[in-house]
Write a structure and sequence with these properties.
Elements lengths: L11 E4 L14 H7 L1 E7 L6 H4 L5 E6 L14 H18 L2 E2 L2 E2 L2
Parallel strand pairs: 1-2, 2-3
Antiparallel strand pairs: 4-5
């Protein structure tokens, strides 16, 4: 069960681009939520960002991954690591900007 005091430790929220996923969140309006936590939307490389996500402001990181095709084999996923490292880099940057240090918030 997600307790109310846990919200102080939320640093990122992955989104599908649908507002129903925020039902029950402390901040149910995505524009407010993504002022408090970094939003991450993962879509397909080369496809447009959904209009709903565009309207949520600059607090949403949009990244694109390659679509899977059976002919490419496991070697075709090599760019996924680049995407993951980019996401973690932005999460860490966001945390530093909000005052998080190695020992926690404000330290």
């Amino acid at each position: 069960q997600f307790k109310p005091d846990y919200w102080n430790r939320v640093v990122a929220v992955f989104t599908t681009g649908q507002t129903w996923q925020f039902k029950g969140y402390k901040w149910q309006d995505p524009r407010e939520l993504f002022k408090e936590a970094l939003g991450v939307y993962v879509g397909w490389r080369g496809e447009d960002l959904p209009p709903s996500v565009k309207g949520w402001g600059r607090g949403v990181l949009s990244v694109g991954v390659e679509k899977w095709s059976s002919g490419q084999g496991a070697g075709g996923r090599w760019r996924d690591r680049e995407v993951v490292e980019g996401i973690w880099g932005r999460v860490e940057e966001w945390m530093r900007g909000k005052g998080w240090g190695k020992e926690g918030l404000g330290r």
